Amino acid sequence: MTDAPITGLTLAADIAAGRSSAVAALDGHLARIAEREDEIHAFNLVTADQARAAAESIDQRLAAGEDVGPLAGVPVALKDNMCTEGVATTCSSRILEGWIPPYDATVVQKLEAAGAVMVGKTNLDEFAMGSSTENSAFGPTLNPLDTSRVPGGSSGGSAAAVAAGFAPLSLGSDTGGSIRQPAALCGVVGMKPSYGAVSRYGLIAFASSLDQIGPFTHDVADSAALFEVIAGHDPQDSTSIPHQALTDAGVLSVSERLSEGVDGLRVGVISELMGSIDGFEPEVLAQTRAAADALAGAGAKVDEVSIPSAIYGLSAYYLIAPAEASSNLARYDGVRYGHREQGKANTGLMMSASRTAGFGAEVKRRIMLGTYGLSAGYHDAFYGKAQRVRTLIINDFERAYQDFDVLLSPTSPCVAFPFGAKADPLTMYLNDVATIPSNLAGHPALSVPFGTGADNMPVGVQVLAPMLGEAVMYQVAAEIERAAVAAGGAS
Ligand code: GLN
User: Which active-site residues does the annotation give?
Assistant: First the structure.
């Protein structure tokens, strides 16, 4: 990447002040897409015509003196598991190929109301199951920083779209790390909100008790701004947090906190995720320690904290998430959605043939794992036990947050890896060890770039906060970003 990418807030300010326009902003980004998208494959679909119409209308409304919204004219890319009315939504699966949602997800409505311009739907691991986008039915996304490497996943297309300058903002979904891990691997900021802070209405379900939508951006200020646009209570999502609780916790006004610094804040570095288990690259650990030191230098009280159950999150997650997926994905039966195999003798055979043809290997593996873990006789030993581990993790983190305002760890044990490097599923699953606990607990967590690791690839440091702790999480992330920029380590 040569010239520094323009941020969403800068672009919004330029457009609002008449120094640029929505159409010019769109053209600039479409030009970058034309230059590199064939190589990167960040998108399943680029909605250029629709985006142009939206941008023209925004420019007209701005010319008429209307307040179009905080993101007026800013291009945004959406992970292709969020419903967009009239625009194909595939989850990067053959089974949904050709399906056109009849409604917009709540986040899509909110983006539109804020004046953002959707430029396309981004690639993902099929049904968001994976950590590299290698599981997409439409081929992988390449890491814009080194095209021999994965961009991470499952929201690899959204991370790559921002990293490649295809859009300054994008949305992903995070069930076990799918926003934070690709953000780390692509050198951008990625954030998973508190469970219930952002509506899941119109997000195609993977594991409903874990899924959350969140932003990808170049910097922390953009992340805070985009989060404020998409957050809020939604009566369409029964797990959505009431407006008053979000307001009281400062969740809807996180931007105010970015310049406050960290003086006196208590930061706990999670020992279990700092090398006491195998698989963490030394450079990743060193950068995480350097970020902690920078916080200490800025006045935070930094200490190690042990959360013994944290590492068991991985095993619990790979029972709970597949269990929920096996139930959620039962709806793809060749009748209600998408692909149907023709010429079968009866409905049962048609359904089984449609699912066999429509789902990829990883999705089938998850459905089988989940069905097995839920089956009579095994339910208590697998699913039940995993739920008890989940409670243990929640309790352990809550205990830690009595002593600390935020916690710190690497986002991913390693930097972006080459395609094919984690071919066996277990090796791939192990990549999620640091991100999964926040999903199981429902807590917010954010990955912020901090320097580079092996082969000069970016490292992401994870800031974890308690339930509805977005404000303090962003406050700390902003300080880490300032330290990264000061050290010249910003990507
Ligand atoms: N990598 C994890 C999985 O494969 C997380 C995916 C996600 O967050 N959507 O399940």
Answer: 79, 154, 178
